Amino acid sequence: MNSLAVILTNAQIEVAGRLYRRLPQWQASEAALAALADKFPGFSDDAVLLKAVAINGLYGTKVLALPRMAVHAKRVIEKNDLRKAGLEFVEEIARLPASEEQRANRRYHSFAAKFAHFFVDPERFPVMDNYAVGTVRFHLGSREYRQNLERPYVAFVENLQRLKDLAGLSVTNRELDHYLWIAGEYRAFRKNPKAKISGEVKRLFTAPSESVSADLASLMPSNLSCALKGEL
Q1: Number of C-alpha atoms within 13 angstroms, CB side, residue 103?
Q2: What is the pLDDT of residue 103?
Q3: Residue ranges of the domains in the chain?
Q4: 8 Å CB contact between 145 and 159
Q5: Mean pLDDT, residues 112-136 taken together
Q6: Do 67 and 45 contact (CB within 8 A), yes or no?
Q7: Using an 8 Å Cβ cutoff, are 114 and 107 in contact?
Q8: How many C-alpha atoms does 40 have within 13 Å on its Cβ side?
Q9: Would you state the pLDDT for residue 226?
C-alpha cells in the first residue's frame, strides 16, 4: 500500500495560509496579477507581453528574451482551446524555440506554469517551481516521486495529485501552492539560515513573534523535523 514518506495534513496547509497572510509584499504581487487578469482578460499581443513581464518580474522566472517568449506564448494560446487545454499547454509554452544565435531550445517551466495558473485557470494549472517540486518530493519520498525529463510539468501535476490523494487533502491548488512554497523556504532556512530565500519570508523566520513561532512549529511538526535532519 502506498503511503507518504512524510505526513501532510490539512492543518499544516491552514498554518501556511496564516503565515502567508503575514507577507504583504507577496500578497500584493498576487493581487497585482489578479488585477492585470481583470483589466486585460484576453490575449492580444500587448496583453500577453504585459502578462509575461509581470510573471517574470514578480516571480523571477529568469526569462531573458521576454518579447520572443510573448510571441511564442501567443502562438501556443492561439492554437489551443483554453477552455479545454490540458497540461501539455504548459509544456508547449515552456519550450521556447531557439533563436538564430542559440543551438538548442530552452525550457521555462516555472514561467509557463505561473502564466497558466494566474491567467488561464489556477485549479487546472498548479504552480511549478523548485520549491513546489522539492516539497512534493519531500512528502512523497524519492521512491514514490515519479520523474519525466521530457514532460516535467505533466509529471509534477501527477505527483501533486498523488500527494493530495494520499494525504486526503481538501484544499485548492492556490492554498496548496502557498504551503509548498512556504514549507520549501522554511526547510531551506532550517538547513542554512543564510540560504537565498525571499527577504520578506526570511525576516518572518529570523525574528518570529510568539504566534509565528507556534505556527512554524505546527508547519514542521516532529516528524518533519526528523525527516529534515535526514536530508542534511
Answers
A1: 0
A2: 58
A3: 10-23+128-231, 27-119
A4: yes
A5: 96
A6: no
A7: no
A8: 16
A9: 46
Which amino acid does the sequence have at 118?
F
Mean model confidence pLDDT for the chain: 91
The pLDDT value recorded for residue 102 is 60
21-39: pLDDT as tens digits: 999 999 999 999 999 999 9
pLDDT (mean) for 143-166? 95
Alpha-carbon torsion, ordered 199, 200, 206, 208, to 10 deg? 180
What is d(CA 183, CA 152) in angstroms, rounded to the nearest whole number? 21
**pLDDT tens for residues 75-89?**
999 999 999 999 999
- The 3 state secondary structure assigned to the chain is CCCCCCCCCHHHHHHHHHHHCCCHHHHHHHHHHHHHHHHCCCCCHHHHHHHHHHHHHHHCCCCCCHHHHHHHHHHHHHCCCCCCCCCHHHHHHHEECCCCCCCCCEECHHHHHHHHHHHCCCCCCCCCCHHHHHHHHHHHCCCCCCCCCCCHHHHHHHHHHHHHHHHCCCCCHHHHHHHHHHHHHHHHHHHCCCCCCCHHHHHHHHCCCHHHHHHHHHHCCHHHHHHHHHHC
Look up residue 71 and give its three cell numbers.
Answer: 510571441
Using left for φ > 0, alpha for ψ between -120 and 50, and beta otherwise, residue 222 falls in alpha
Q: Is pLDDT of 225 > 50?
A: no
Determine the average pLDDT of the residues in 100-119: 86
Place of cell 522539492: 134
Statement: residue 104 has pLDDT above 90 = no
